[in-house]
């Protein structure tokens, strides 16, 4: 208990040391996730039970939602560089509110698709803007810790959102309306308190940003390696349920393991980041993080009895995530030369979205082949570790 309290005290202390704008952007991640997870966990059930859509149509709707967000991050990024973060964050909040409003009224597939596309595109507008703005606000020396705090805040929102949905016990349309109102309030909060800073590349063409990013070979190499993390993390939603089904675990276990994952991030992110900074440094921490991700898959492939494999998978996967994400976010502005941060963060997320789309399709087929699938899936983060090691040595040589 004392350790947990000290961890929370340190987190609050570091949060208090942030600038006012950085604190707002961290709070934004908490509120974004509360509003998002208030609605989205219940979408599939609504589509199947209330609207009577077939299973493949439910999957199509969820896929369209993911692609309309991840695939469009690169667009939101270049718009951030052109117009500044504040207009994109405000627009994203209002578009998501509109998307939830459409979902609340939707009774047929075309309207549902329109709603989920708006919900997804909204994230593509405000997420790169928030990440780029937070990276600039934190400065080079505090970026890893600041993004670690942001990860903690996001996980808290991920837990609160579904719980709030349970507490409200409202119908799905009513929950959508509540989510829409919340995002309007978030927009008003940013309208009042987020400083308006003009886009740093406002006098340049939209496509100039993409040309610069795709001409940055060091960044593209890093983005390819980082995509391995995103595909690996996505196995929480695909591989983990398959493993639980294999061992005959009850449905409630999945929720408990998700709660464990969130608790690990909330209480372990800052200590892990600080310890990795002292003992490993950024580049080694990235390599070790990807190696831990690979180990998570290897443990499941060994087929330990009962729930041991699934639990170890979650713990190792989240530990790898805590090592990788803050230092990866810290590295993006460095690779970008502190230029066009919106475009770089956006392309990074879009590259990951494409990788997840392809990787999920492949892993869905692989998981039918038992332990061989887990070994093959573990090769992906192992390749990511090799990419990070090579890129780190290349940076050290060039410097």
TrEMBL record:
Annotated ranges, domain Major facilitator superfamily (MFS) profile:
21-396
Q: Which residues cross the membrane?
A: 21-44, 56-79, 100-126, 172-193, 214-233, 253-273, 285-302, 308-329, 341-366, 372-391
* SUPFAM superfamilies to which the protein is assigned, alphabetical: MFS general substrate transporter (SSF103473)
For this UniProt record, the keywords arranged alphabetically read as follows: Cell membrane, Membrane, Transmembrane, Transmembrane helix, Transport
InterPro entries named among the record's database cross-references: MFS (IPR011701), MFS_dom (IPR020846), MFS_trans_sf (IPR036259), MFS_Transporters (IPR050171)
User: What is one GO cellular-component annotation here?
Assistant: plasma membrane
Topology versus the membrane:
Multi-pass membrane protein
Tell me the PROSITE patterns matching this sequence.
Answer: MFS
GO: which molecular function terms? transmembrane transporter activity
Subcellular location as annotated: Cell membrane
PANTHER family named among the record's database cross-references:
MULTIDRUG RESISTANCE PROTEIN MDTH, RESISTANCE PROTEIN MDTM, PUTATIVE-RELATED-RELATED
Q: What is this protein called?
A: MFS family arabinose efflux permease
Q: Which organism is it from?
A: Lentzea atacamensis
